[in-house]
Write a structure and sequence with these properties.
With 934 residues, this protein is an alpha/beta fold. Helix 8 (193-208) packs antiparallel against helix 20 (493-506).
Length: 934
């Protein structure tokens, strides 16, 4: 039957509100991608922040027979986080419970908790969660458990299946179940006795079939996420235990996972790693069986193609160039809770491998600076290959598993298939202890022939993995759509019948993520393949992995870089197809989400494994939108910036007086009227600062070191806010602080004329931006006497942009100078507590440790509000697009305890936004150090 999606949309809006539901074509398309190679555009997107919203969505879906796909972080690689109908995405604030048991042996996690955040909470207790996928810094618990995701160390002993204690679930019919609550289980028994009986009977039937039950146990002796977790049918009899473990790896096809309680595992205190280099893959693979045991926590195997891919790259060992062709590397890590045990483990490994000839002696290092370089080789593989692939090509990671005795032969067979099907770039690496290989290829899907070539390749891989080695077509990435056609081929008819029965018991109407895991279409893995048209060098390497989304300040507002890039790629595809009208419409419709509201903070670049820069691209894309009149205004501002800067500063003083006399209402009305005349007029904010002042440094004192101090635009334009306890401007405080520490201070004669150019670059006016930056560099370089006098800048973003101009003299941010030169010269009286923001500019400049050290020196307790990575003010954009700042800081007030009254950062515009939304005064760290050193 046909589905009336207009009616569905209206009902969802009525129940959930407009902010939680979208049927906008641009936004639907933007959410049609995950980290896989598929694209399926949903009809409606729902962001649910609580269980009631999920229940209401399911109720409407049932009434209209609409399929529903659940999505967490969207880092899945097999196409299980996208689907037709309704795409229900975990919201940006809900499902984030973190509760640790009193004995620290259990942790309860909301479905939207990021795995790394769970481990951060457990770290002080020397505990962690068992699953350790490579996406742990981005993947959410709902996805981790639903995919039975694992990684380098957890193997099959500490994955979600083995460590789950209980779960809170929402079934397709709207029923809730907490498998860790007796009351909930009793109620479920009353209402769903037939479901429980069906599961118990299915398990009993499976255990009575010796051939089938033995095959299941054998298949799960190695990593396996192909199909449902039917090992539950032979491992458990209690129906609630069955539910608990069948949900693991079910990829959202059986129920909605609200919350999971894990048994925690110990985090070893001592670690050591070795890089064992073998002359060939056979020798490397033969080293695996003897070292399996307590002595080895992880062992990663890299084939010759992998070694070649990383050789000569930044951070890689120079001696890789000297290895003989065909060499293979085994990275081995041992872990223990005491140094003596660790030493015994490493010696045990060396002894067990003594019979195998290696290219160089095996030696363990417990120095993190040494062994981190070993693992950089392993972690660097994916970004290096993904980043260097040909433009327009995709990057596909598949993972398969074999019994360890077959690893060498299987690697040779895989390599042969790479060459047979025209993927000579293919590399093999993986979690050798678990018999798990990952392989990467970079196919192009520009034609039907390309798709058929990939189809032939995957068919041959399946024949080899399944029929030759009886291995797993999916080891840890989930079945999804990518290997759904091969589930029955791998498991056989009896096991496949069990899986279909499980799906029917849980979801008789087939509404939950249909087509995933079980699919009768033998070609579903080569349908709905997303194209990868060339857009721009800044983003063409994007693999749409979603790592950028955790820190992007606009993820909750509208888009993350992944959605922006996906949208730009579709616009380009439409252009290339000749449908210019459709491309123009999508470009216009997407402008607000893609271009206007990107903060361009470049946190995405830091998080990105292939170094995309959405921020830089957005600035470039803004250039064509600058009208002739706007360009004249920008030119005037650049030419007469001193006067403009003074007028703005004075204007904020006047605005403060007007507000004091008339109040919020009239002031806001005046600002609204002004915006009708010019978009340069900001939105009203009661916490707007007064205008800034420039200080007059004291006369120079003989025998004292001199510094050149450049007060950046923010601090000299915007003075204290109504919430600030100090009426001095930042430049006044900085001069006081530097002089107290024994420095003579000189500032540029025409300071207000100077700027790093950030305000022009953010608008896409690169010509004026670069000219202003060069003007600043020329002035301070001359003042520094050829670099003999230190040059200081008091705003992190301004320092950063100035340094990108490659000045010939050393320019230092004030924060760094305070840490390196001032702390030891001042006597400090600590405050009780303060808040500290470590924003995007601090991260780009890698100054977080020094900022933390300054705050720690000045306060007994320093709070860093969790999850506040970028304030979203984006220079002056917060004045004109306040919704970005409001969204980025929507949670900050509730994260700061009432006893903390002041916060600190090192960028005035950011501090204005932080002050507004936190409810406390945020100022430069210079204020803190100056006050504590009086």
């Amino acid at each position: 039957m046909s589905i009336n999606y207009d009616a569905v949309y209206k009902e969802l809006i009525q129940q959930l509100g407009e902010s939680a539901v979208s049927n906008d074509p641009v936004r639907r398309f933007a959410w049609s991608t995950d980290a896989s190679y598929f694209r399926i555009v949903p009809e409606i997107v729902v962001h649910a922040d609580n269980l009631e919203q999920a229940k209401q969505t399911l109720a409407i879906a049932r009434a209209h027979k609409v399929p529903v796909t659940f999505r967490a972080a969207g880092t899945s690689l097999s196409g299980q986080a996208i689907g037709e109908g309704i795409l229900l995405i975990l919201g940006h604030d809900g499902f984030r419970t973190i509760e640790i048991s009193s004995d620290s042996n259990k942790i309860t996690l909301g479905a939207a908790v990021i795995g790394a955040d769970a481990n951060a909470a457990l770290k002080p207790l020397n505990k962690k969660i068992g699953p350790d996928p490579a996406t742990l810094a981005s993947a959410m618990v709902g996805g981790i458990v639903s995919n039975n995701a694992s990684g380098m160390c957890c193997g099959t002993a500490q994955n979600s299946y083995q460590t789950i204690a209980s779960a809170k679930l929402l079934f397709a019919d709207g029923t809730e179940l907490n498998t860790g609550c007796d009351k909930s289980k009793a109620a479920f028994t009353q209402s769903h006795g037939e479901l429980l009986d069906s599961l118990a009977s299915l398990a009993k039937l499976t255990r009575s079939n010796d051939v089938l039950s033995q095959r299941i146990r054998k298949k799960y002796s190695i990593k396996n996420t192909t199909g449902y977790s039917i090992n539950a049918l032979v491992d458990f009899e209690d129906p609630f235990d069955l539910i608990n473990h069948l949900i693991v790896g079910a990829e959202g096809t059986l129920a909605f996972v609200e919350e999971v309680t894990y048994h925690t595992v110990d985090e070893a205190k001592f670690k050591a790693s070795a890089m064992a280099v073998f002359f060939n893959m056979v020798d490397a693979a033969s080293a695996i069986p003897p070292i399996i045991g307590d002595s080895v926590a992880a062992a990663e195997l890299l084939d010759w193609a992998s070694i070649k891919a990383v050789t000569g790259k930044k951070g890689m060992p120079d001696w890789l160039n000297e290895l003989p062709e065909g060499a293979a590397i085994l990275l081995i890590e041992s872990r223990a809770n005491d140094a003596q045990t660790l030493e015994s483990y490493t010696q045990d490994v060396i002894a067990k491998l003594a019979h195998i000839k290696t290219e160089r002696p095996i030696s363990f290092s417990s120095d993190a600076n040494v062994y981190s370089k070993y693992w950089a080789m392993r972690s660097g593989l994916f970004p290096i290959i993904g980043g260097e692939r040909p433009k327009g090509s995709s990057v596909i990671i598949e993972d398969v598993a074999f019994n360890v005795e077959h690893l060498a032969a299987a690697a040779a067979d895989l390599t042969e298939l790479f060459h047979k099907h025209g993927y000579p770039e293919g590399v093999i690496y993986g979690h050798a202890l678990a018999g798990n290989f990952h392989f990467i290829i970079t196919p192009t899907f520009a034609s039907q022939a390309d798709i058929e070539r990939f189809q032939g390749f995957m068919q041959d891989v399946a024949e080899m993995v399944i029929h030759k080695y009886d291995g797993s077509m999916k080891a840890e990435h989930g079945t999804g759509r990518a290997v759904a056609p091969f589930v029955e081929m791998e498991w056989g008819a009896d096991a496949y019948t069990l899986m279909k029965r499980i799906k029917h018991i849980f979801d008789p109407e087939g509404l939950l993520n249909p087509g995933v895991i079980l699919n009768d279409d033998s070609t579903v893995h080569v349908k709905n393949i997303k194209p990868c048209p060339v857009v721009d060098d800044f983003v063409d390497k994007c693999i749409e992995c979603g790592f950028c989304e955790k820190t992007c300040p606009t993820s909750a507002l509208n888009f993350s870089p992944r959605q922006r890039i996906a949208t730009l790629r579709e616009i380009e595809r439409l252009e290339q197809s000749g449908d210019k009208a459709a491309a123009d419409k999508m470009r216009a419709d997407a402008k607000y989400d893609v271009i206007d509201t990107c903060a361009a903070c470049q946190l995405c670049t830091i998080a990105c494994p292939v170094d995309n820069s959405m921020g830089q691209l957005v600035r470039k894309l803004r250039t064509p939108y600058i009208s002739t009149t706007e360009q004249k205004v920008l030119d005037f501002q650049a030419k007469h910036f001193g006067a403009v800067n003074q007028v703005i500063s004075t204007g904020f003083d006047v605005l403060g007086v007007i507000h004091k006399i008339t109040g919020d209402g009239i002031t806001n009305a005046l600002m609204k009227t002004g915006r009708l005349l010019s978009k340069e007029v900001p939105y009203w904010n009661p916490d707007f600062p007064k205008g800034g002042k420039l200080p007059k440094p004291s006369p120079a004192k003989a025998g004292q070191e001199t510094v050149v101090y450049f007060p950046a635009c923010g601090g000299r334009t915007f003075g204290p806010t109504p919430k600030d306890p100090d009426n001095r401007t930042l430049p006044e405080v900085v001069v006081t602080l530097l002089e107290r520490a024994g420095y003579n201070v000189i500032t540029p004669e025409k300071t207000r004329d100077l700027c790093c150019g950030q305000m022009w670059e953010s608008k896409g006016d690169f010509k004026n931006a670069d000219a202003k930056r060069q003007e600043l560099i020329d002035v301070v370089s001359k003042m520094s006497n050829g670099g003999k006098i230190p040059v200081l800048v008091d705003a992190l973003s301004c320092t950063y942009r100035t340094l990108t101009g490659n000045p010939q003299v050393q320019i230092t941010d004030l924060v760094e100078f305070m840490h390196d030169k001032l702390l030891d010269k001042l006597s400090i009286n600590k405050k009780v507590n303060v808040a500290l923001h470590l924003g995007c500019s601090a991260r780009k400049m890698k100054l977080e440790p020094k900022m933390q050290a300054i705050a720690d020196a000045c306060s007994s307790q320093v709070l860093k509000p969790a999850g506040i990575d970028c304030c979203g003010y984006a220079g002056e954009k917060g004045l004109y697009k306040p919704e970005i700042n409001a969204s980025a800081l929507r949670n900050i007030k509730k994260l700061i305890p009432v006893e903390i009254k002041e916060g600190y950062y090192a960028n005035r515009m950011c501090e204005v936004g932080l002050t507004q939304h936190s409810g406390i005064s945020y100022r430069h760290l210079a204020y803190l150090l100056e006050e504590c050193s009086r």
